[in-house]
């Protein structure tokens, strides 16, 4: 009885890693040195799982409803890391596709990019930089709150939540007082006493400041 040989997918080996024959070795090696930016959007999918469909939806969201003009424009706006490389992308934020098999090789640069992005705080020009200690306290509170909800609202986490909440309230009160004193020192000597009292009465709601 003749048994037909088992069919296997046609693959090529790049640095000991099996990859599709359409992947160019130089582009694949370039993808391994990929450095994600803080605002990159990376779609990770298995093959034949609706990648292009989800990419089209994401591009419509990023481009405010404007669809790519043609296939070439689609590839430029949503390149696959190991097939097209990164240099073809011209959008900001960049939208990139990464096969599930490739993302394991990019775990370290993605983790490093996540750490860097979380350290960068976006603030508008109309607002001062946030207090880092207050942010650290608030992040600790959020982590405790998530653990409290996940573990059945235990008393231990409830006590820790109450403690961190009290610490946040004390620190924000001290911070507000410190900022108020700094503002007072800045205007000290630059405004007459009568106008100063007018500002104080205005803050107390007694009359408008002149």
TrEMBL record:
Domain of life: Eukaryota
Residue stretches in coiled coil: none
A biological process term (GO) from this entry: sulfation
Start and end residues of each Sulfotransferase domain: 39-149
Gene Ontology molecular function, alphabetical: sulfotransferase activity
Any one Gene Ontology cellular component term annotated for this protein: cytoplasm
Pfam families listed in its UniProt record: Sulfotransfer_1
Name assigned to this protein: Sulfotransferase domain-containing protein
């Amino acid at each position: 009885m003749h048994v037909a040989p088992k069919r296997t997918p046609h693959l090529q080996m790049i640095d000991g890693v099996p990859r599709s024959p359409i992947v160019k070795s130089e582009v694949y090696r370039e993808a391994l040195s990929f450095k994600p930016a803080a605002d990159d959007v990376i779609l990770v999918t298995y093959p034949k799982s609706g990648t292009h469909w989800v990419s089209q939806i994401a591009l419509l969201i990023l481009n405010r409803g404007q669809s790519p003009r043609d296939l070439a424009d689609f590839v430029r706006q949503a390149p696959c890391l190991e097939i097209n490389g990164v240099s073809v992308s011209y959008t900001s934020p960049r939208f990139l596709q990464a096969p599930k098999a490739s993302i394991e090789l990019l775990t370290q640069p993605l983790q490093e990019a996540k750490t860097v992005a979380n350290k960068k705080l976006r603030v508008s020009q109309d607002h001062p930089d946030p207090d880092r200690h207050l942010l650290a306290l608030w992040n600790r509170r959020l982590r405790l709150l998530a653990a409290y909800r996940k573990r059945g609202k235990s008393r231990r986490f409830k006590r820790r939540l109450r403690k961190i909440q009290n610490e946040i309230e004390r620190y924000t009160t001290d911070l507000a007082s410190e900022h108020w004193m700094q503002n007072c020192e800045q205007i000290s000597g630059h405004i007459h006493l009568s106008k100063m009292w007018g500002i104080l009465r205005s803050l107390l709601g007694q009359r408008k400041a002149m």
